[in-house]
Amino acid sequence: MSKWKKLLGIMMLMFLLLVAAACSDSSSESGSDSSGDGGSSEGESTDSGSDEPYAFSIMANLHTPEVPADKVLEKIEEATNTDVEIQWVPDNNYEDRLNTAFATNSLPEAVFLKNQTTFVQFRDAIEDEQFWEIGPYLEEFENLSKLKENVLDNTMVNGKLYTLYQGRPLSRQGIIYRKDWADNLGLEAPTTTEEFMEMARAFTEDDPDGNGQDDTFGVTDRSDLVYGAFKTVASWFGTPNYWGEKDGQLQPEFMFDEYVQTMDFFREMHENGYINQDFPVTSKTDQQEFFKNGTAGLYVGSMGDVGSLKDDAIAINPDVEFDVHNYVEGPDGEFGIWAIPGYGNLVMFPKSSVETEEDLKKILGFFDKMMSPEVANYAYWGIEGEHYELVDGAAKVTDDSALFEREVKPFQALEIGEPETNGRYVGYFDYEPKAKSEELFIDNENYLIEDPTVPLYSETYSQDGARLQQIITDATYQYILGQIDKDGFDAAVEDWKSQGGDAIIEEFNSSN
Amino acid sequence: METSTMSAREEAKQLKKMKRSETWRRIKKNKMIYLMILPGLLYFLIYKYLPMYGLVISFQDYKPYKGIAGSEWVGLEHFERLFTSSEFWMIFKNTLMLFGLQVFIFFPIPIILSLMLNEVRHSFFKRSVQTLVYIPHFMSWVVIVSISYVMLTLDGGIVNAVLETLGLQPINFLLNDEWFRPMYIIQVIWREAGWGTIIFLAAITAVDPSLYEAARMDGANRFRQMWHITLPAIRSVIIVLLILKIGDVLELGFEHVYLLLNSSNRNVAEIFDTYVYVAGLQQGQFSYSTAVGFFKGIVGLIMVIFANWLAKRFNEEGIY
Q: Which keywords fit this entry according to its UniProt record (chain A) (predicted)?
């Protein structure tokens, strides 16, 4: 008995220690946080003459499961003479953290925004001069002044520039499919939506893997109407990119017939079992798993994913063959593909943490150096010989892609501009479909469908747009699943209009 | 006349004064004991009452950069928006439905379970069952919902595979609003029933064994003993726990419901907690979501007062 008591005592003690350790850990973390904050004033006092590294912090999204090691960051700090603390926030709950930090006035000196939607949400605060206007300073910086004018125009608020952008190919959307399955069945890459449907059918019903079992289906999709398959397929049908012009007036995409056609297309695939039945609740991981493990044969999304998909799929089945494809005509005989406004992410500088113009210039100085080839390569490719090698003037990631993923990939979130402006190496890919996907990004640029509302402003949209969109998103899924019919969908659109949609249409059109 | 009332008032005053000084004297006398409750008192003041100051933003058009002092006052605008919104009744109804499931279906289960365990003779069996049923309590909702997802999905889930081999139609558990509530309450029972059992079992062990002896002498069988001795003995515990449960009326487990929520079941699964999260944290409507949360809190308070009043009517001790 006493032995048990002793054991219990020891366990309690360990538990206490654990708690204490956890507490001290978090306190030291918050301590360093605050020192990062205080860093700005510190830098100010020491900047007269000395070469003390300038300390500040950046909040950025983390696309990998783990926070990266400091190795690459140290290189960046050395090259820019700064002491940067990066607050990594998982991409999944970036909005929460961003809003919480903003509400509690604890944004760091440089804040990445995630995407266009969050940028629209912050519009109000930007107009209220809560962030530094950086337009007038850009000329002072050799590299920042190279940023593309047309993309900068897309990020202006009332004609003033508040953000630096991170360039991304305008459209990376397309199909990744099982080449070996298609060859087994004698199918070519689909060039029309009908052929796409036929491929989805054949992959489901004609036993493409030849194992005599009914264990495959066509398309794997996830709970995302934008970056999943839906929006890309909608583009093939000729649906506008969020907003389009009809009867001389801007209207949202879901008021167009093409949107309904796309829903019918998905409904047919769902009814016949050509798509995973639970796709409205499928995560990205599960979606990709179906593709990797040979359950599904068609993946619609960013064609660049083919590289990482292949790495994992090969481990399960070494005979897997993938290919990428972009050109799919709709019923009207035309191919179109939706485009992002030229930036993937934006970085802003809150006045609450960047107190003086001098500080702002130092931070802009950091991002200016981030746009020099040397530093941009550190952030994007890591250290030469360790993370990548040069092949024909292009960077080729070494065979240890896990190492790259761990130590370098997160820092790609800090890139400013694009290869054309920051001079970093472009990628060299010896995996042929991956190289092809890079070419198709460029090919896509001939068929872009742009979002006409990017330079426009609607107050209601900025405040209520996300909540209203939920009505449409829900109705779209319900329609595809056959839970509501066209009347039900129209009712949802009416609901959207009456709850503020009418005001959004009105405001966008009057600012056009 | 006047002088007499004056004196009566004076007297009452005097009496009050005496009483007050009496209280003071007692406090002084037991100051060590009062000192001991100080940490608890401070805890509630600092962490529970002080933050309530933030509720004022529900009457403002709160802008973080202007702060509470600088934001514009808008009166009851946000409450008006809530009550006139088409979603309000849906959310209110959903919240009450889940609450009803919690009280009427979930709440009796630990009681029944503990009564059953109490009747088990084999102590090894009893103890191992007791341990096994409360282990799920330590699993997070993420794990529980993921397990159910993997089991129930149409894309290779085991439940539908079994249904199919039995020649039945597969059931779309995840994307069907009719299955949300059963799924919710079954998961709650699976996770929490065993944990609740412990409390009732503890109450049962406190029952005087001589009562059972006497009952047996009078020829009561096991069921009679349970009905006439065990249950009345733990009645006050049941009532207190019920009141506390009702106080949690709107704490239906945000995490749990949020994980189960999707486009097809929103009409039955959207509750106040999930609504506040989406509106407040994801879409940055701070004032509006505070107003929603405030309203939820008030409903909870009313329910507790009501339940307590009800308990007193039945001559039971309430929680205050």
A: Cell membrane, Lipoprotein, Membrane, Palmitate, Signal
